[in-house]
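FAQ
Q: What does a multi-component entry look like?
A: The components come first, one per line:
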Amino acid sequence: MIETASLTQPPLALREVSKRYGSILALDRVSLALEQGEFFGLLGPNGAGKTTFMSLVAGIRSPDSGQILLFDQPFEHRRLDQRKLLGFVPQSIALYEDLDAVENLRLFGRLYGLRGRLLEERIGEGLRAVQLFDRRASAVKTFSGGMRRRLNILASILHRPRLLLCDEPTVGVDPQSRNAIFEYLEDLNRDGMTIVYSTHYMEEATRLCSRIGIIDHGKVLALGTLDELLGELPASEQIRVARNETTAGSIAELRHFGEWAETQEAFVLSPSPEMRLSEFFAALERLRLSYRLVEVERPTLEDLFLHLTGNSLRDS
Amino acid sequence: MRQTLVLLEKEFRLFAKDRTAISLTFLVPAVLIYIFGHVFGINRTESGPTGIPIAVVKQVDEAHANTADAIIAALDREKSFRVLRTSKDASGIEHSLTEPEVRRMLTDGDLRFALIFPEQTNASLGIRVRFLNNPQNEIETQTATGLVQKTVFTSVPQAIFQSLQEQGRRFVGSAAFEKFDHDLAVTIARTFGGDPAEIEKQIRAGDFGLSQLTTNDSGEASNFLDQLVKIDSEQVGVREVKNPQATRSVGGWAMMFLLFALSGAATSLFDEKKAGMYQRLLAAPVRRTHILWSKYLFGVILGLIQLVVLFIAGHFLYGIDIMSNFGNLLLVCLAAAIACVAFGMLLAAVAPTSAAASGLGTFLILTMSAIGGAWFPTSFMPEFIQHLSRLTIVYWAMDGFLRVLYNGAGMLAILPGVAILLGMSALVTLVSIWRFKRGQIFD
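Then the predicted structure of the entire assembly, as tokens:
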């Protein structure tokens, strides 16, 4: 029944899922549903509950309450056949360092029931796709961080899962390797694989994800496409005034132009609907503030997070 | 200098937080010093072994019964021995030990020493005894033989003269014999000096000062004692063992290193946790029990191979005969390997970290090896430690190895020991499973 799960069934749905570790509520009544072929991002700071979310969905832990549905069927901790629909890329590089790339892949492939020629073909294809074929016989401990990350992902998808869970798979990776990983994941997604990608980098979520859930303190605070999420902000653009002694002293004079927020680097104005840009610049001139201190920008997920929580993603 | 002091303080702070380092620095050596101290008699007023079981079987006629009783009483007083006189049959009825029974126990390795007082073939003054031993433990056998000789030679002369006194009293009548003793005492006192009453008391007790001959190593004394006591020594239940010391040592060292190897393998659970492997494995179609079973089976197979390889090495290097009883040796090796793996898994289950498991493992392995008989016979330690040694897997593994290699014991003879090893493994495994369920190693 599992093997023939319909392509139209939602790959993953959570209903009021909670998880507690002692006194800490790691996940608080989380509900969401994924569409087939989605690239879903789970964005939140460290400690927000992303890894708990992933470990519940991967079946590593059981929720205290609520229900997880995998392709419309309750995800049961004890049912090993359901695991074959999933691939999980853990945050750490979970590979046996003393084994070579092929030995690692053979091990994980066999755990998912792949055997013989099919397994060898998948290993060969995969290693070529992540550009590690030439290093297939080298021990993993001789690999660079980026190479390990790519192999870490490959080890999770040899069995061609319908749903891939990536728990911050680019931590500690240089920009070039990160790009290679992004392209590889995008290829997988284009081929129809549904991906859940957790990160605390809004740039990653913005680039990769067709839909994003923002999570903090175990709660999903917002859920939608990038445009839908940014649409939740009171203003579509923001005006950033660089923070220095002069601007700090004058900012009170500009309060009436809209809603202000503060970060360490800047005062951020979400303009009121009736604000006129010419009036704002006239006020700047009157206060003898250089226009170079001012930047008009489209709001970001960072702004949304700030708006939702009062903290920046990196401060949390 | 200031920098050095600051860094020195840091070293001490780190050390104080490292329980493993503290245990390896102080606790492990302290325990081993204590054990070795007992073995070599450093921390006891009396050195030497204690509580070696020795069976006694009395078949002598009435004329020699008193002498036999005196020797048995002397053995009772000797702290090195624990005298066994009786055993219980299947229905729990206690009876005096018989020679065939004792020989069977020696053959099976359940007993290593026995003193038989056989029917005396002549009416001579002296006594003939048979000292049966199973020398599966060479050092212990040498020590026990010496102690038996000392005990017998010390007690026999007085026992014999005491017996003579009683026989004389029966033969000539009590009053006449007492007069004889009195006259003899008076004559001795008059000729050599001394208190006649004290001399008479010594004569009646059979004490002619002959016991002191045992401490006199002159040829005359020795010849005199040889006339009084004849000890026939006989090895029972032992095959011709080419290199007995090596046979014992290989088993002991193999067990210790097996424990080290398997506790190391078990602590790999921590390394895999640290590497995040369980996240990946448990997200795959893999259960925790699959992971634990794979570790368990790996340990058993590795342990079995390690033990067999070491015994084969002992065979080629020292001529240990492993082939003539190989099947049973394999059975004991298997049980020992299972027990060692169970021990390793327990370490992983109870220790919070890899370092703690390693420290605790080192402490327990060295202690178990020392008190379990891997390094020296358990009888060289105080009796309470000998009781403790029976709680260790090393003791039962060594017992099995020695039965197989020395006695050529069959499967029936080794089964109880194997069953104890497997029982210990089952118990320890249950505790481990309980701990693994409650612990966080897979979280």
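Q: Is there any commentary attached?
A: Sometimes. For this entry: Residues 12-231 of chain A form a domain with the Rossmann fold fold (CATH 3.40.50.300).
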